[in-house]
Amino acid sequence: MNKKPLAFLLAAALASGASPAFADISSIAKNKGAELVGDILSNPSGLFFDWQQDAEAITPLTPGKWLGLNYHLGQFLPLPIGVPPLFGFVAPIPLPDPTTAGNISGKLRLHAEGRWAPGIPQIDVVGGVWNFLPSQVLVKKDAKPTDDTTLTDATLKGNYWGVILTSSLEPRMRLFWGYKRSTMNIDLALNKPTDVLGSQVQTIKTGLQDDFLLAGLEHPTSKGRYWTCAISYGVKNKLLAAKVAWYGRIFEMGLNVYPEGIGLYPFPGLPIHPTVGMHLNF
Amino acid sequence: MKRALLALLVLGAVSSARADEGRTLTPYFNFGIDEGVYIAGDRSQYFSGGNVNTSVGMLANLAERHSLFGLYNLNYSGAGFAPQDTKEFLSRTLDHNASFEYRWQLAGPFRLRPGVAFGKSFYRSAANEPWGQGLYDTNSSGAQMAVDYTFKNGALTAQYLTRSVKFPNYTDLLREFQSAGAQAELSGGLQDQTLKEFSLNAYWKKLFATAKFGKQDYDNQTVVESNGVYGSTLQEDKSTTLSAGFVGKLWIFEVQPQASYVKHTSNQNYLNFKFFGDPSPDFVANAYNYKDTTLSVPFYLNLTQRTALNANFAVTQRNYDDRPPRDANNAYLLGDKQKNTMTTLGVGIRKRLNEVAYLRLTYSLVVASSNNKFERYLPYNYTGNQVNLGFSLAY
Predict the structure, then answer these.
(1) Which of A95, A272, A51, A231 is nearest to B361 (CA)?
(2) Tell me, what's the ipTM?
């Protein structure tokens, strides 16, 4: 392969990138950092809700399976080695997220496609829970107001359940539709009021619940390997999430995009979550 | 809840009528998303934004010459750079549209397509108001009639459509100010309008062209007069759009150039208040008459069957017929006409993931320039950089 065109284009991109935009990176980072802090404080639920959706298993059970157990490992950092995809590859470096330490999801097939009658789709129920277990390490329930500022409660948890209907469009393409309800709660308490950006804060009790409609396609790429894309829309809060995922017999990787999300981790300011998980299907 | 589940069950059952069962029902699924980071150079502004466009449809063949087509489209347009005078960097829209069309294949090459359409749009400005409270939220409904004429290697479509567009949250601050008190609420509904549009679309081999003529009749909004008050003439906007392009392929090279021209006229004028309560605002007649010219040339170099490098050049220019530009202090520069130009240069990689899906990574340099130097509310002159990751699928 001739590498010259690519080298030229990369050089052009880098040269054009040397515009005034990069002249004041520290100023941009400072402004964006302050904006992110403001976004998180005004809507802490939104930040964690995106991570909850990363952990949710909303794709249908693969054909022939009746039960599935999913565990969300967390995020991954895509580290380019060489110049992917032309001559190189992307190495996924796993990173934990708030749901990593305590989450489990399940899928149960209620009806295999066409079993009751021709045309009736596969019907799966899905659901799961998560809890930010490491927060308990930071909590001192008996802390007094005279002690140093410390957490007396830190509960971050969520759950979801839903129904997925799946129909074959052709042998190598399945369309799925569904509904899910996602719920999340955050309870934070300090032993005394603390100044946060000029406001005295001692407790934060918040949460988010939404009813999502979702649709997507599943496409097998080889034996035991699948590729899916799905979009979900939260009717109450007008939340959008898009997911592109690849999975085999055990591991699955995905790229989740939250256009209205806050985007703090793993990419500050960019609401794209590269996720990794594993599953066992029976 | 029960109703939602029942609807899903029915939809699922319907969607499972497969192609091998005589193509009674044919599904349609189109999905595109991109997300990117944007840096506006001169303003040290960094933000992220994305676009989502999903369509789900179903074609039902009722008889040999008769079919029904239903389509739902969800379109989210997020923060990003846009030609001057069109949107703020951080404004976003969320549109839901549904249409139902009856398709009647007449004898010979003609086909009739009467239909109805409904839409609900949400607008969120850079002020970040909650969804549903946008000044420019709309509800729309309407009907359309299309006639297709097919010929060898091509087709010609003539369509007439009408839409009633309501703005439930819109109000006019000038009117509220001038008619303060009990009359203030009457300022609502001023943007409500009826849109009528006639279009001709044609393609032949790899060439395509469109001609569109539209008219917006405002139900209540009247034209502001030179004495600073609204008169009795209702606002009326007209636009003519001409566009053409082609798809060309030669060996490993692929190019899809497209050009368009828009002429927009409005009988509405503009009052420029330099501060709240300005007793002598500037009056600009025909402030909304302009001509837009756009040229875009996407170029692909297909390295392999799955991977292509791409380069893109696009330029959009808007020339106002009568609106003068302003200096940095909001003073009109009489004798000149406002002119905006936005140029985009992009390079990237397009990767075909499988039979129906593509992944794209693109870097773009955006240069916006204008002789209008008043930029307190909207940027007119800046250099922007953006990197976008996109994914698209059509089945």
Answers:
(1) A272
(2) 0.83
